[in-house]
DNA sequence: CGTAGACTTGACCTGCGTCAACGTGTGTGG
DNA sequence: CCACACACGTTGACGCAGGTCAAGTCTACG
């Protein structure tokens, strides 16, 4: 995945839920970017660090994380290729935690200034960015519900369903997708221990719902998995239908 | 708290973290609003409901909530007077859950169209709104860490610290503030049962840290409570220092 | 073919949930 | 002004989901 392919992927993500003109798309594609390869398990945005760029993920898998004062980590979001993991930092400098490469990952650093200039020049672009941040919020809210109110097996099933839909280019259900996280990282996301993740994944496998291994997820029974995970995709796709894609200027 | 006082409170909230001109403030103060009184325990924005207005809280306390398919609720955010609880819905229609009045509450309904017109006319206002949504995200992220990785006592102490700072007009620490939530509602927020909330609050009281009763929180020992709750206010206040308050047009 | 990181499994422990009973304050109608 | 109801808070007894600890096993890679 090279430089301009990744920006194109980001534009594709935006246009799923926002209407953009050719000029606006071009403005995104013309953003300056600087590719960096990150080793697995490395933090590339530290907690409470203030950056002057945002990170667009070209390949790999990224976890946004918070931490307790005793150093225990909690992954609060996964970010996939095409996601601008910390677009928010262009508008609010800190507060959304650090970013950790869960496997070998390539990111594109895009200066905040360039993002802000583009957003100023094209208000509809600002709105598309804003809406993208709100999608992250919606995912985060589900994460709270998931971690707070569901048992281990249900929680993991929900995560697998979510990642299936988010991995597809057009929010379609993928029955087989790449998910290069270790069980320990999954545990940090689900607020469990790796031991219990292991047991719960085994249960999902033994009941014929899904297999997670070798950095891939294979879903054998989508309906069953969605039921087991109490998964309803509305929060992910509600704004992808055309009637809901308002534009700032056209009000 | 009347109509225009509440809008002024909202403006005050915005200007803590965003620089606004007089014109921009006036545009917010001129927003059309329609006051509604909500009974305690009533949902006034339902899950997955699409509205054409946002709700500015004039008085009372509001919980944003999600729900599992078995009907168990999880409160994912508290909203206080002066907060625009679902400002996000002006840009992304659904996905952030429902709103429930935790006690008798008065809200101002503000049409999305009016918000969008103001944001279009004044890009810096759009940015201020966007930033406000990102503060909610930052709080939400801490909520995940809190629910996922801290034990009951720590979790509650953290919530009490957060609400102390958010209740103050200028993000100052309040040692005594109104918090009209029942123990059951606190349990829905902390992902505990009301029984365990009761026991944990008792522990905070017995150790001389804080007392919660009669819809008020009294903090006897801020440092102790912050330590017990592993609380670091950075995520709430990081963007209130002037150097971080960039403006869209001035880049 | 050795080493290290990831995965797997078993045995035991504990924080919190569940259930159930009881106390307490407040508003309401007789 | 009492009495009654009802919502909220409090406390005890007990069970279990998931944590902890520890000992392997598997796999990729030098």
Which range does the strand content of chain A fall in?
15-25%
Oligomer: homodimer
Radius of gyration of chain A: 18 Å
Most extensive contact:
A-B, 60 and 60 residues
Mean pLDDT of chain A: 94
Number of strands of chain A: 10
Structural class of chain A: alpha+beta
Q: Give the distance, in angstroms, between the N- and C-terminal Cα atoms of chain A.
A: 36 Å
Order of helices and strands of chain A: HHEEEEEEEHHHEHHEEHH
Number of helices of chain A: 9
Form type of chain A: globular
Low-confidence stretches of chain A: none
How are the secondary structure elements laid out?
The structure is a homodimer of 251-residue chains.
Chain A: H1 3-17, H2 22-29, E1 34-38, E2 43-45, E3 53-59, E4 62-67, E5 73-79, E6 98-101, E7 105-111, H3 112-121, H4 123-149, H5 152-167, E8 176-178, H6 183-190, H7 194-206, E9 210-213, E10 216-219, H8 222-228, H9 234-237
Helix pairs in contact in A: 3-4, 5-7, 5-8, 6-7
Chain A binds a DNA duplex (30 and 30 nucleotides) through residues 151-152, 182-184, 192-196, 198-200, 202, 213.
Overall description:
2 copies of one chain form a homodimer. Chain A has 251 residues and is an alpha+beta fold. Helix content of chain A is 43%, strand content 20%. The first copy, chain A, contains 9 helices and 10 strands. Chain A has a 4-stranded antiparallel sheet. In chain A, strands 1-7-3 form a 3-stranded antiparallel sheet. In chain A, strand 9 (210-213) and strand 10 form a beta hairpin. The longest helix of chain A has 27 residues, at 123-149. Chain A is globular, with a radius of gyration of 18 Å. Chain A starts with a helix and ends in a 14-residue tail after the last helix. At the A-B interface, strand 4, strand 5, helix 3, helix 4 and helix 9 of A face strand 4, strand 5, helix 3, helix 4 and helix 9 of B. The first copy, chain A, binds a DNA duplex (30 and 30 nucleotides) through residues 151-152, 182-184, 192-196, 198-200, 202, 213.
């Amino acid at each position: 995945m090279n430089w301009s392919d990744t920006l194109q992927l980001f534009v594709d993500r935006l246009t799923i839920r926002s209407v953009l003109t050719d000029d606006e798309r071009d403005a995104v594609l013309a953003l300056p970017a600087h590719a960096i390869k990150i080793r697995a398990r490395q933090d590339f945005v530290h907690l409470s660090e203030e950056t002057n760029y945002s990170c667009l993920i070209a390949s790999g898998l990224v976890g946004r994380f918070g931490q307790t004062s005793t150093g225990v980590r909690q992954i609060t979001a996964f970010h996939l290729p095409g996601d601008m993991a910390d677009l928010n930092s262009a508008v609010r400098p800190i507060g959304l935690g650090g970013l950790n490469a869960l496997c070998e990952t390539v990111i594109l650093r895009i200066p905040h200034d360039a993002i802000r200039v583009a957003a100023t020049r094209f208000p509809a672009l600002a709105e598309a960015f804003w809406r993208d941040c709100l999608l992250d919020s919606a995912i985060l809210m589900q994460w709270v519900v998931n971690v707070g109110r569901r048992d281990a097996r249900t929680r993991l099933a929900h995560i697998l369903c979510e990642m299936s839909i988010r991995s597809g280019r057009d929010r379609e259900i993928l029955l087989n997708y790449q998910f290069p996280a270790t069980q320990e990282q999954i545990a940090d996301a689900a607020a469990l221990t790796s031991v219990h993740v292991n047991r719960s994944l085994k249960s999902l496998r033994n009941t014929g719902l899904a297999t997670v291994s070798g950095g891939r997820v294979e879903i054998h029974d989508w309906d069953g998995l969605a039921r087991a995970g109490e998964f309803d995709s509305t929060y992910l796709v509600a704004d992808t239908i055309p009637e809901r894609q308002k534009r700032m200027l056209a009000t």
